[in-house]
Records
---
Amino acid sequence: MKHSSVGVALLCLAVVTFSATPAHAANTYPANSAGIAYNYNTGSSAYGHPGGMIITSNCNRYDPAFASARANGAEIISYVNAIEVTTSMHCANDATYYNGGYNNVPKWPYPTAGARANYPGSKLTDIRKGSAWSNRVVAYVEQLMREDRVDGVFLDVTGARLWTSLANWNSWPQWEKDQWTDGNVDLVRRLDASRRAINPNFIVINNGRWDRGDSRGIAGEKYVDGTVLEHHSSSSEYHRLQAGRTFSNLGHRRVLAVGKDRADTLAWRNVQGVTHVSDQATYKQVTAPVVGFTRLTDRPLRFGKSSSGGAIFSPGMSANYKRGSRFYLSEKGKVLNMAAYIDGKGGPSGSQQVRMALYKDNGGVPGTLVVQSNGLNISAGRNAGWVYFPTYPSNLTAGYYWVSLLSGSNNAVGRVASSGNANWHGNTDTYSDGAANPAGIGSRGTTTLNMFVNYTRGH
């Protein structure tokens, strides 16, 4: 899915076809729409929904239109080409990424530096395992992880082998093929290790296959969240099987199928493993979404206090009492669930009912109830840990909220953890009839409760 200012190269992959397409089970993933916005932002707002995806270029990824779509729930994925450098830079971001320009990027050294190419107007980079260029790509993507202004990267042409006639892969000696494959696998392995340390929600998609005809490149699949199937027929059994590959264990699978036309795209959405579809024939403009949107909950965000370090546990919680701490949400979203760090060592036996409640702030104290969770039982002797409380998926706007815990009767078994600055409000509240609305008048405390809210971005 290479892009440039003058055109687009389509990745030419081997196609295996059969005289008859076998019957297949229905896709178990909801297929959302994706827009490919390399050169324009026009039409991108149509993808600004939870579940939507927009793939930008390296040049335009910070366009305000994409930031707006992201705020509304779309995932913004930035194009990054790790294996090629063009002879001219398209923008300042390209120049930064490529160390100032074409001449400053180490080229693939075989048979001589700069001899190999995959697409006209570019040369293959030195993507060997541990090379200076590989280190540069990792550092660049790590910065995107830290910035958190995009949701992931699209690694064009990255995979176990090359497919274009210009690359002429089949003419390469075996040792050179192996170095190429090993370098590509090592690149995604390092990016995967980085995101697990920096931002586990960061998405990594590659546009290439990890199956080069043997097992050498297959390891690459476990380091990425998915792949792109670009303008291949939905009846191609080879590409249908690629759509169903396992990929990363981080839990946010992303497999994009770009159909040959509208009918083909609609067929792709039913292929097992596909999570996003697009019917864009070219990438000069963003077309209208081809299917609707389904909110994805596999990349939850948090606000509150999600660290348990240095926590001190309360005595066994009093019956019919509510306590909470105030936290800030910087964007609109939808609640998934709430969590509190609790143990069951406040009483010697039995259990205690507890539930969580979320309140809007009202001048520094809890005000209107937003949502409350189902009740759970905390058993005596339970070890300390995060307890998750399911809630109704309510909309949130940016602002301050009070995350609260309401305890019922029975033995004062549960204890809740807290630490840090004075950020506490509590009052009596009968458990049996649910959390009071509004919260009610209470008293202040001298610590912050270890509680948080999981949510997804956008309404």
---
Amino acid sequence: MENGRERQENTKKRLIEAAGEVFSEKGFRAATVREICGRARTNISAVNYHFRDKDGLYAAVLEYSHAAAIIKYPPDLGLKEGATAEQRLYAFIHSFLLRFLAEGYPSWHGKLMAQEISDPTRALAIVVEKSIRPLFNRLAGIIEDLLPAGRAADGEVHEAAYFCAMSVVGQC
């Protein structure tokens, strides 16, 4: 038998998963809280209780989908310590593409990211800080390891590595 805390967590997870499906199908603006709650089999007040509003629910969905995608397809794809820069670059690109194009649960991560980039919401700044920037910096670091000059001494990314990383992401 579920206690109150378990029931709340179950409701919260159902809302996030239903919202992920609806947001990925319709986009943030066209999605309705009513439809999300219908799919989650909960009442509308549960969104206010757990997430404050539709924006809060959307931010939770983006964070959840990114975390689930990273767990399923980590940027190093399980490479062992001491892998070459070429192996790390291959694993990074492969995992990046898997996160965007994968089928199965949660298949909506790539759709959400594409929608957020093409039609940004207020959540974009959070997505950039928590998801995109750390992965981009990791990619730029791998590319710096491939450059003859190596990594920048001041902790900044070489301009060449930055543009190469932008090129890789753009091609993906």
---
Amino acid sequence: MKHPKAPIADPFPEPRDRIERLVLTGFMGSGKTTVGRLLAAQLGWRFVDLDEEIESFAGRTVAEIFAEDREDAFRRLETTALQSMLHGVALVVALGGGAVLSASNRKLLAMSSGTLTVFLRASSSTLYARCLRQSADPQAAIRPLMGNSEAFAERLARREDLYREVADLLIDTSNQTPEESAESVFRAVRSTL
């Protein structure tokens, strides 16, 4: 059973079911992986990056799956991986930025008891700048759908309502460090854990 939407970074206004897992969603560059790792460490929970789970299962990188099999095949793998993760407890899961495109994924999140979905939001210009900085790191993951700043902004605009649809909580990360974002999520959910 999903919970009523909570205001931005405010504690929940009513008693909630116990949260067994946190799912972080948002566009590329929003901090899902970085914030997720910090939050999991703070909670003493396990962290899972859904894209890394898919890569492990497929034996290929996300970029290779997109190039060889196209996005539809990747989205099917993503749904299977998400379904598996939603059975875990004491878990922080970082979704890929496009996971909300799948109606199946949105339904899984809506129907998952004990799951709280957090939308890490920031402006398009902030997200794009973060992605550019990250792409300079040779260890950084390749973002096959990044494109130029205009395409990036258009893709974000098409997804924004879907992120809001699945979210129980919205945290604006625009002017926050990853540590501050993790602390914002923790403060908002600690009474439900």
---
Amino acid sequence: MPFNPHYTYLLVDLGALIFPLLLSFDYKVAFHKRWPALFLGIFPVAAFFILWDSWFTHLGIWEFSDHYTLGWRIIGLPIEEWLFFLVVPYACVFVYECLKAYTGQRTKFSQAPKVASFIGILLLIIAGEHLFRAYTVSAMG
């Protein structure tokens, strides 16, 4: 049976989610206990980026191929894109919590403000170099 490409984006979402979700019940990390606070943080950020994504799709700045999605769309975005904004933050925070749990380190980011400032300045420079590219300037500015 040949692979159906319409499942591609969904499989990417599921691939990013499956291990973090299954391992969320690990006794040392106990990530499932943090779900209420996590989703309280994820939902407003996801809402912002979903609206942004929808607007840019409407403007034609980017698009989503029906060849690699199931074709179900809400406000112009495939359902897989909606899932992306839940799955990826979930997986990222899960990895962070695992690192804390298994290395025994609590957050010690004394260099974080310097690194964040450097990255911010770098992104502003890149945005300035691409003022006439709507996506680049909006994402990096």
